[in-house]
Design brief:
Order of helices and strands: EHEHEEHEEEHH
Strand content: 15-25%
CATH architecture: Alpha-Beta Complex
Structural class: alpha/beta
Radius of gyration: 17 Å
Number of domains: 1
Helix content: 25-40%
Number of helices: 5
Bound molecules: inosinic acid
Oligomer: single chain
Largest sheet: 7 strands, mixed
CATH topology: Maf protein
Length: 198
């Protein structure tokens, strides 16, 4: 089976391919269908944005399509950057600089007050146009320094609960077992398997 993933984010694409690798399903991206338009994320929630991206891609592809919206929520910042994670800082700023800015914003906070989570909402559209959403959350805390070279985005400053390493230090295999994205995608896989059995 082929599923279109409505994203231009190579980090997300690699992760979802990895998470789906034992299903035998093929995950294609927007560039595989020559869809080069940047879909504006104008929604107020992860659900809205995931649905906006999935619907835009489904209107062209008209078969199994998924999109996801995700973000980092820092408790001491009232849940920011949250749904604005990709747009919280100017677009030309590197992620090293963005991570440095986040660390500066909570510089005086002790470890127990640096709690945070990553959240991911996946929206799947079936060939008949039905929509189904799945949410995954990974709790953890913000590190005191930028650590590790794997992954993307805010990975170098996020330490998931139960681990002493940031997402960017632990590498793909562990991250893709425990991450917010892995949890949402695994629910989608369960749903798809049930659909395909029916
Ligand atoms: P969007 O879903 O395209 O709005 O982008 C979400 C943004 O949240 C990404 O560009 C990253 O900055 C951040 N983000 C979401 N998931 C992750 C992750 O797994 N690791 C690091 N950063 C992430």
């Amino acid at each position: 089976m082929k599923i279109l993933f409505a994203t231009n984010n190579q980090g997300k694409l690699n992760e979802v391919r990895w998470i789906l690798h034992d299903t035998g399903w093929q995950l294609i991206s927007l560039s595989d269908i020559n869809y080069n338009v940047d879909i504006p994320e104008t929604g107020q929630s992860y659900y809205d944005n995931a649905a906006i991206k999935a619907r835009a891609a489904f209107s062209i592809y008209k078969s199994w399509t998924m999109a996801e919206d995700s973000g980092l929520e820092i408790d001491a910042l009232g849940g920011k950057p949250g749904v604005l994670s990709a747009r919280f800082f100017p677009p030309n700023m590197t992620y090293f600089e963005r991570n440095r800015r986040i660390l500066e914003m909570i510089i005086d906070l002790p470890a127990e007050k640096r709690t945070a989570c990553f959240r991911c909402v996946v929206c799947l559209i079936t060939p008949t146009g039905d929509e189904k959403c799945f949410e995954g959350v990974c709790r953890g805390r913000i590190a005191h320094t930028i650590r590790g070279g794997y992954g993307f985005g805010y990975d170098p400053i996020f330490i998931p609960d139960g681990y002493g390493l940031t997402f960017a230090e632990m590498g793909q295999e562990i991250k893709n077992r425990i991450s917010h994205r892995a949890q949402a995608i695994r629910q989608m896989v369960q749903f798809l398997k049930e659909c395909l059995r029916a």
